[in-house]
Amino acid sequence: METRTNLESKTVDAAQELITINVDSYLGFTQAAETIPDPDAARLFRQIGNERREHCRELERAIGAKPEDRSGTVKGTMHRWWLGVRSAMSTDERYAVLAEAERGEDAIKHRYETLMKENAGNALSPVLHKQYAEVKKHHDLIRDLRDRQKAQ
C-alpha cells in the first residue's frame, strides 16, 4: 500500500507535473496582475498567484522534494507572451486579460481532473482534491468576471 513515505513513481510524476503547472500559473497571474488596468482584479490575480506558489510548496512537501526555483514550461511561457500581445492589441484590455486568465484556468482545472482520476485513492489524492477545489473556485470566479466584462 502506498503511503506518504512510500510513494509510487506515477504519484511522484503526477506531483512533479502539477508543481510545474502551478509554477506556470503563478508566473501567469503575476504577469496578469501587472498587465490588467483594474486594481481589484490585479489584487485577485496576486492572491491566486500566491495560492499557486503555495500549491507548489505543498506538493513538494507531499513527495518529499526539496523546494527549488522553477521556471515553468515552454507552453506556459508562450501563454504569458500571448497574454501580453493580446492585451496590447485589444481595445478592452481588462477583457483580454480576463479571457486569457480564464483560458489558463481551464487548462489547470482539466489537468487536475485528469490527474485526480489517474491517482484516485493514492497518498497524493487528498492534496489533489483540496487544491482542485481552490483551482475550480478561482476558475469560476475569473470566468464570471470575464463574462460580466464582455456584457458591458
Number of helices: 5
Query: Structural class, from secondary structure content?
Result: mainly alpha
Distance linking N and C termini: 54 Å
Characterize the main sheet.
none
Portion in strands = under 5%
Gross morphology is elongated
Written as H for each helix and E for each strand, in order along the chain, the element string is HHHHH
What is the percent of helical residues?
over 70%
Q: What is the name of the CATH topology?
A: Ferritin
According to DSSP, the number of beta strands is 0
Description:
It is elongated and about 50 Å long. It has one domain: Ferritin, core subunit, four-helix bundle (Ferritin). α1 (9-35) runs parallel beside α3, α1 (9-35) packs antiparallel against α4 (93-118) and α4 runs antiparallel to α5. The chain is 80% helix and 0% strand. The protein contains five helices and no strands. The N and C termini lie far apart (54 Å). It has helices at residues 9-35, 39-63, 74-89, 93-118, 125-151. The protein is an all-alpha fold and 152 residues long. Mean pLDDT is 84; it is low at 77-82. The longest helix has 27 residues, at 9-35.
